[in-house]
Every structure is written in C-alpha cells, then in structure tokens.
Design a protein that fits this description.
Keywords: Biological rhythms, Chromophore, Cytoplasm, FAD, Flavoprotein, Nucleotide-binding, Nucleus, Photoreceptor protein, Receptor, Repressor, Sensory transduction, Transcription, Transcription regulation
Binding site for FAD: 203-206, 244-251, 347-349
GO cellular component, one term: nucleus
Family: Belongs to the DNA photolyase class-1 family.
Helix content: 40-55%
Shape: globular
Number of helices: 23
Bound molecules: flavin-adenine dinucleotide
Order of helices and strands: HHEHEHHHHHHHHHHHHHHHHHHHH
Number of strands: 2
Largest sheet: 2 strands, parallel
Subcellular location: Cytoplasm, Perinuclear region; Nucleus
Radius of gyration: 24 Å
CATH superfamily of the largest domain: DNA Cyclobutane Dipyrimidine Photolyase, subunit A, domain 3
CATH architecture of the largest domain: Orthogonal Bundle
Length: 488
C-alpha cells in the first residue's frame, strides 16, 4: 500500500509541475464518474485494460455507463506487451498450452508496439472541482498514508527500502540498462540469473511493472535496443530478460478467461494433487514454521524472513521456498503459499504469482512432475550464498557457526553449537522435516500423480526440459548439483 501511495504521490507531483494535480476519489467508480459528468461535463474517459478477470465486471460497468451518457470511452492495452485476448484469438480461441506455443502465436501477431513518447502538457487545460463537489465526493486533499486505511506495520524498520513511483522506476531503469549493457559486452544474456546476487542492492523492476510505474513496452524495447547496440544485427534470443517478460505475458494470457486460475479444484489447467489436509494434525505447525521462517533450514528461513521484512525476494529464492512448501518437503498446497505471497510480496500479482506457484509445485505448466528434481534446501543455499552472508543477515541465530555448518546447523557437534550460541532445539529450531526422507516420499507420491493423471487430462507443460531449467534460473552446469535430492 505504501508503494502504491508513493506512486500516486509521484504522479501528483509530476502533474503539479504542469499546473494540474491528481484527484483521488474514494467510492464506486460509476457513481463518481456520473456525478462528475453531471457537474463538469466529462466527455472522455480513458483507462488501461486490466486483464485480471475479477476487474472485468467493474470496467464493463464503466463502459456501459459511458455508452448510456454519451461519454467517449477508450480502453487501451498497455499493462501487457500483447493483448491477451488477441493472443487467444490468434491461437484459435484457446490459450496456448505451452510457452513455445505462446512464442509462436505472438510471432504471428508481430513484435509488441513501441512505447509512446511522454505526454505533451503544453496545450492541456486542467479542470478543477468546486469545493462543494469535492466535499460531496470525498476528494482527498493529499495522498493518504497506509494508516489512513487502517493498515499498520507488522515489522520494524526495513533493511531494504523500496520506493514507489515512476521517477524512481526510471532511475532504476537507467542503472539496470547500464548493467545489462556491460553483461551483453561480456556475452552474458541473463546476468541476474547467471550470478544471482542475494545480498546486493536489488535491481528488480517487478513491483514498478506491477503498479504501472514503468511501462512494460519501454522496459522491453530499451532492453532490445541495448542488445542491438552491442550485438548489432543478431536477433534477441528468448533466453534473455525479454524472455522473462514474456513469461509474465504468458501467465496473464493463461488467466485472462479463467476466474479459477488461482485455485486447484475448479481450475481446468491445474492438476488435482492430494496435498496435506488442512485438518491434518501436523499441518498447522508445518505451515506456520514455513511462514515465519522457523523450519530449521537456515536458507529457507532466511528467504521467508526477508519476505516478511522487506516484501521482495529473488526469483531463485522464491523457487526454493515454493518447492520446499509443496512437492519438495512439506507437501502443503500451493494455494496456501500463494495467499501468503500475495499478502507480503511487493510485486504480488494474481496471474504471475499463481502461474509461478503452479509451475514450481508441478501443478501446471510442468510436464516432468518428478520430485527427484526438487530443490535441496542445503546445497541450493550453499551454492547461491557461498559465504553465508545472506543467511546470516536474516537468521542471526546461526551467525557464529563455522561456515561449513551454516546451511545445516543440526550437523554441527554439540560443543560447536554451544560455542556458537546456536544450540538446536534451544536457540534455533529443529528441522521441521528431514529433507532426504520426505523428498523421497514425495517423489513417490508425484510419480503416482503422474501415472494417474498426466495422460488423461489436457495438461499445460513446459515445451522441453531446457525450458524448465531456464525458468528455474539454473545454468546447465548446475543442474545435477542443485536439483539432486542427495544432501551429502
Ligand atoms: C513462487 C513464485 C511466485 C512469484 N510471484 C510473482 C509475483 O507475484 N509477481 C511478479 O512480478 N513476479 C513473481 N514471480 C516471478 C519472479 O520471481 C519475479 O518477477 C522476479 O523475482 C523479479 O525479479 P527481477 O525483476 O530481478 O527479474 P528480471 O530477470 O529482471 O525480469 C524482468 C521482469 O520479468 C518478469 N519476470 C521475471 N521472471 C518471471 C517469471 N518467472 N514469471 C513471470 N514474470 C517474470 C518480471 O516482471 C520481472 O520484473 C514469482 C516467482 C515464483 C517462483
């Protein structure tokens, strides 16, 4: 909420520089627009297409109202690179079931439109509201704070502070482009995947894209232009940042006509898996330990605590904790993980988040359904955080342990635990499960699901195995080491 309000404040400041301001109303859109139309003769309403199915009804009502009142209504696609409805139409009326099919369909449509230039305000005359109408419509005098909405902070001061707004997003874009350019010059296409940096200052634009602070077209095209500057005539390969943006598109397209996309039972593309029942006596303890970063696996706990504290975590870290909650270790439904992510992620996005959860939990988009490929919470952490800096930052309990035990503190001899003030069961929790045991059991369960379901229902799956590795941000040399279920 803070990020969103900062974004509105930034917009307000920009408009004020041109002699206008941002008017913020609280209420039902149709009632507000109708009153404005009665009083100040609105003759045109423009808005961006919101492709989440739950907003369709709201936007439809505004369009019908415009038709009734003779107001021109313009809805444009700019939150996505392509219009999801057009992609579906081009694919013969159904969403493309694989990412490769999606790429093929969009190649038929053509490259995404270029970004429009910034607006020219020189001939714009800003309107104003009478004080009585402003009072009646409860126009907010200044940008409200989260507290005005009854929201209070759950945690103290954050280590990393994200600031909302276009101004900040454009500054970030500049430094991101510089970093990409340097990486391209070294022939590295996905610098943040090849060397994920968990402790450096974050470079992500996902929240800015989510809230519309940064135009997706501008992001896409500046990356393509930077690539072309370095590689001249070579076409941009799909394994690049623009490829990541296309995943975002793919998930939007898969969800645009599917109101049940974020759940298992009624969702036609989601495999039905018998996850641990919420009434199981072990459920609560397992789920709470995951949410609060108290699983006893320091890497998993670091990620979950960073999420609570800062609202953003790296993609590789999201993969690790999502796999741990679902098919890897705890066998808890991805829907529960999704709801937690939607509450705490700064870039929380219904379509993108649910799509990723289904992918990582092997519930959709995933052909392999093979739990022998689940993420090892020890080896994976060690590889991504070789000096334990990330884990120590968020899990101070293990800070004094020698590096060799930081990712598996239970294996430290008791005298080492005592000397490091990290006695397992006292200063830091016991492992909630033994990864070796449960991942083998879960693998067998997944195998059974595969036999039961996979050939019987139409199933969204990866186009090929390589695509799976790319999605998980795993360079080829790391496949066996990081995904194997042996922890020794
Ligand atoms: C379980 C899980 C939940 C996730 N939930 C969200 C979410 O709610 N919102 C969200 O924006 N991303 C989500 N992601 C995707 C991804 O983790 C973030 O987009 C990514 O961490 C953003 O980092 P970046 O901007 O540095 O990525 P970059 O590599 O810089 O990618 C550029 C942009 O591409 C898009 N993108 C990158 N990876 C993905 C992906 N796997 N799927 C869809 N779009 C992608 C994002 O908009 C991102 O900002 C989730 C991933 C997982 C595994």
């Amino acid at each position: 909420m803070k990020f969103l309000l900062e974004s509105l404040e930034d917009l307000d400041k920009q408009l004020k520089r041109h002699g206008g301001r941002l008017h913020m109303f609280k209420g039902d859109p149709c009632s507000v627009f109708r009153r404005l139309w009665e009083d100040i003769e609105i003759n045109k309403i423009c808005f961006e297409q919101d492709c989440e199915p739950i907003w369709r009804e709201r936007d439809q009502e505004v369009m019908s109202m415009c038709q009734e009142l003779g107001i021109e209504c313009i809805e444009r696609v700019s939150h996505t690179l392509w219009d999801p409805k057009l992609v579906i139409k081009t694919n013969g009326g159904i969403p493309p079931l694989t990412y490769q099919m999606f790429l093929h369909t969009t190649s038929v449509i053509g490259t995404p439109p270029k970004p429009c230039p910034g607006p020219d305000f020189s001939h714009i005359k800003f309107g104003s509201l009478s004080s009585s109408l402003a009072q009646e419509l409860r126009v907010l005098d200044s940008v409200p704070t989260p507290e005005n909405f009854g929201l209070v902070k759950e945690v103290g001061d954050k280590l990393v502070v994200w600031v909302g707004g276009e101004t900040r997003a454009l500054q970030h874009l500049e430094s991101r482009l510089q970093a990409e350019k340097e990486a391209f010059a070294q022939r590295i296409l996905l610098s943040n995947q090849t060397q994920p940096n968990l402790v450096g200052s974050p470079t992500s634009q996902s929240a800015a894209l989510r809230f519309g602070c940064l135009s997706i077209r501008r992001f896409y095209w500046t990356i393509v232009d930077t690539f072309n500057e370095v590689f001249e005539d070579l076409p941009m390969p799909s394994q690049s940042v623009t490829g990541q943006l296309v995943w975002r598109e793919y998930f939007y397209t898969m969800s645009v006509d599917n109101p049940y996309y974020a759940e298992m039972e009624r969702n036609p593309i989601c495999l039905k898996i018998d996850w641990l029942s919420r009434t199981d006596p072990t459920y609560q303890k397992k789920f709470e330990s995951w949410k609060n970063g108290m699983t006893g696996y320091p890497f998993i706990d670091a990620v979950m605590r960073q999420l609570l504290a800062e609202g953003w975590v790296n993609h590789v870290a999201r993969n690790a904790v999502a796999c741990f909650l679902t098919r890897g270790d705890l066998w808890i439904s991805w829907e529960d993980g999704l709801n937690h992510f939607l509450k705490y992620l700064l870039d929380a996005d219904w379509s993108v988040c649910a799509g990723n959860w289904m992918y990582v939990s092997s519930s959709a988009f995933e052909q392999l359904l093979d739990c022998s490929y689940c993420i090892c919470p020890v080896n994976f952490g060690r590889r991504l955080d070789p000096y334990g800096e990330y884990v120590k930052r968020y899990v101070p309990e293990v800070r004094n342990l020698p590096l060799e035990y930081i990712f598996e503190p239970w294996s430290a001899p008791i005298d080492v635990q005592e000397a490091s003030k990290c006695v397992i069961g006292k200063d830091y929790p016991e492992r909630i499960v033994d990864h070796n045991d449960v991942s083998a059991q879960n693998s067998a369960k997944m195998e059974a699901v595969r036999r039961r379901l996979v050939n019987k229902i139409p199933h969204c799956c990866p186009s090929n195995t390589e695509e799976l590795y790319q999605f998980m941000w795993l360079p080829p040399e790391q496949h066996d080491h990081l995904l194997g279920d042996d922890m020794n």
